[in-house]
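Researcher: Please generate the 3D structure of the following complex. Treat every line as part of one assembly.
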Amino acid sequence: MTEIRTRFAPSPTGYIHVGNIRAALFPWLLAKQKNGTFILRIEDTDQARFVEGATDLIVESLGWLGIEWNEGYLVGGEHGPYIQSERTETYLLWAQKLIKKGLAYADPYTSAEVEVFRDAAKKAKKPFLYRDNRPANPPVWDGTQPLRLKVANPKRFTWQDPVMGELSAGPEALDDFILVKSDGLPTYNFAHIVDDAEMGVTHVIRGLEYISSIPKYLSLYEALELEVPVLACLPHIMAPDGKKKLGKRDGAKSVSEYHEQGILPEAMLNFLASMGWNDGTEQEIFTREELIEKFSLDRVQRSGARFDEQRLLWMNGTWIRSLSLDDLFSRCNNYFPKSADSADETYKKAVLGLVQERLKFLAELPELTSFFFEEPDANLSLITDNKQLKKLETSELKTLLQAVHSSLNDCDFTAESVQASLNALLESTGQKPGVLFSLVRVATTWAPFSPNLAESLAVLGKETSLARIEKASQIL
RNA sequence: GGUCUCAUCGUCUAACGGUUAGGACACCAGGUUUUCAUCCUGGCAAUCGGAGUUCGAUUCUCCGUGAGAUCACCA
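Model: Done. Output below.
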């Protein structure tokens, strides 16, 4: 059996957004599953769109998700270099082969002249094909003109896509496209085919936007006499609101933005994979090992899927809850509120333990926990708007708080003993839990919602809890 | 417009041609001595339309319709 070799070949034109990261995920899963090789290749033949630092961003995003490559950019390999701008000699070699065979020729026209052809075709209501205007006697290519493929016999191509099934397109889809630009650099159309062949790529997996160009690639493979790898197209991820392909213009977030928000890489991987793929069972949560084990191209969905952030958040929440406290804590370094900087680790862990089950993403840690680390500002509307507390007179509230204070004063402040004291107060004051517990909660946290009361007080400690209750009874 | 592709709850999806069309997210209601969350229970909700093949069609075929992609010296 031949080794499976897949690749991700991004262009360094900006950040990687969540709409196109699957073009890395799926080929990586396949390579991992088959003990094959996953290659990272940088496609930087468009100088105009090159963005400084974009490559680092790509590397960082892949690294965060744990999509590691064992050949290619930075790690090297037998088929390098893995940056297209460093491979121009190779492309020129292949271009010369085509010229010798009479299958490539210099384009003598300026882009303005080509534009005239295009307009003429439009006026005649015919689709524009460059090959209809092919020059009879093209000049010798000197490298300053674009080099075009000569499609010798336009025909219908039929091919097998593991995701989409049998695909075909007629000769109208074929044209004399540009192989080498007048700047001497190859086009994507040319370079990626040469590279995939030289690098021994067996499965080309990419977004659906390439599907219309595949007949062109097929004609080039034929001209180059190269074996055609498996060509698979992945359906688009659509914008959450619209029905368009998710792109940066529709506000597609970068992978690193989700990283910063505190989405777990496990959740992101799980979510991305389960958009457009499932194993046929009712399983929703997959570990990365399970994904590697179970993934298959023929179970990839054929239609586009909308990016549903709520579902991502749900999935992230379940992943957060599945982590051990220590593991979760190790990931929260940059997410605790500023006021927690001076707090000790044991305390921070205890706080984290209280909110673990309600955390949907790490960046919401401050709003959930700040009152554990700093004195909260009193917000009396929490009492006046509370459907239980607003029924009581201020004096009654004060009396209650004083009762709580003195009762808790005799308590050793484990969660159990705090609960026991509060329960006893329910008896002695004759108040309903809805009143008493809400009051204590507000007085100690001044937050619209907070974790389990007894546990919160236990973590807060006797001194702080009593001081806050005391202070609250003065403010009222 | 040409070419190509797709089509099941609001969303993500399952269903050898035979199921009361299943699950999950979201939403709604109830329960877990207070809030938010978790957890549990229940509820709402779908096969784009029309022909054909078949005893039987979400599934196969055709025609519509809708949606998307692509038609660059971008990838």
